[in-house]
Amino acid sequence: MEKLTLEGFMSGLKNRNPGEEEFHQAVEEVAHSLVPFINQNKIYREAAILDRLTEPDRIIIFRINWEDDEGRIQTNRGYRVQWNNSIGPYKGGLRFHRSVKQSILKFLAFEQTFKNSLTGIPMGGGKGGSDFDPKGKSDAEVMRFCQSMMTELYKHIGQFTDVPAGDIGVGSREIGYLYGHYKRLSTQFTGVMTGKGMAYGGSEIRPEATGYGCVYFMRNMLNRIGEGMSGKTAIVSGSGNVAQFTCEKATELGAKVVTLSDSSGTIHDPEGVTAEKLEFVKELKNERRGRIKEYADEFGVEFYEGKKPWHIAGDLAFPSATENEIDKDDAKALVSNGCMAVSEGANMPTTKGGIEVFQEAKILYGPGKAANAGGVAVSGLEMAQNSARLSWSRSEVDQRLQTIMNDIHSKCVEFGCIDNGRVDYVQGANIGGFIKVADAMLAYGVG
Ligand code: NDP
Hints:
This protein is of the alpha/beta class. Helices cover 49% and strands 15% of the residues. The protein has 17 helices and twelve strands. Bound molecules: NADPH dihydro-nicotinamide-adenine-dinucleotide phosphate.
């Protein structure tokens, strides 16, 4: 049987999916690791697993109409990408952002399939969302939008079918409106969404999980080379859910977080975003839904309008905003300023050129599908608690999260060990996530 080549495979994929650049980028990063592995393990080649795994099970696209506060009818587009349910129900967040389109949701659902496999919890991969922009909308408008979206979405989800959660633009407010409407339409109280509030079936530590997990993964990478978090300076981008709890845990473990950002710019606080200052950020972002510049005004620090934080010196980087936020030049700036490790809270925040810079510099680089898997892992724990009709304590969930992040790190080391004991975490995460899904697909035969 002919050997698979990266070029041949990618050219077929691009022809089949024209114009979907984010999706091409995500697949190429994975295929780069998997093509040599599949050529060595021809059972996967013969069953055409890579071709099958790069095609979604289905994509559901639908219209969402809702009425704004002025009584005007608004139209948005909703999506649910059900990628692969070989190892469990489809699982992955919903994103509300102007930029949402099929290519972005396909890249996210594809990545999610590997990430969920890495957690060791039985969850397949999915993702969804809408081009609805919650910024500047009233609570009543957000509620009407969420209810209208769920009116269609509820037909396609279920605790054994597909279990959505939050992502950019979808936090506890949106999950409440979405889940409340699901419950009304279905007359069922089942764990069909995760990220729920503690009053209605949520899990302790779920809001914190992605950020905490990303810091635990960073700690694992550092510990392996005899380093630790204490005394390090950290550069964090974003100021939403992932950024806030990354900042909280990194600070708790002795690091000093000196930056936060949003789409309007970056704040630089050389004294560090302390626990008290972080409370200001949480109130600003989660309650008042204001801009990060207010931090600079409140605490008298520098605000770099329209800039990302990567030009600021730090030992550790935690990209926690969005995809492709670190390009080649940003990566070079980080490395030349002494950055020794990157742990990705966001999904695919580093471009192909940026990854090459990190790898050539041989710094520690933890890709999102491993480093930010803590969020979906605790979503899996929320599903387990819902099914068992009980709630675990904060310390119990946190302990489980730490164990899962340790296990993901070990899997990356197992499959990513290269020269002189150095670990290629990209290769480790891609192969480590692939095997379980691929073996399940083999077991099912062709279908
Ligand atoms: P939030 O909506 O809570 O926060 C997003 C943050 O990123 C905001 O500060 C936002 O700024 C900024 N941002 C978003 N888009 C852009 C952009 N195009 N340019 C610059 N800044 C931008 O989302 P989350 O914190 O939940 O998600 C952040 C990242 O983490 C995403 O990549 C997401 O997929 C990933 N992730 C999230 C998980 C979770 O559990 N929530 C789980 C795993 C990964 P502004 O307000 O100005 O838009």
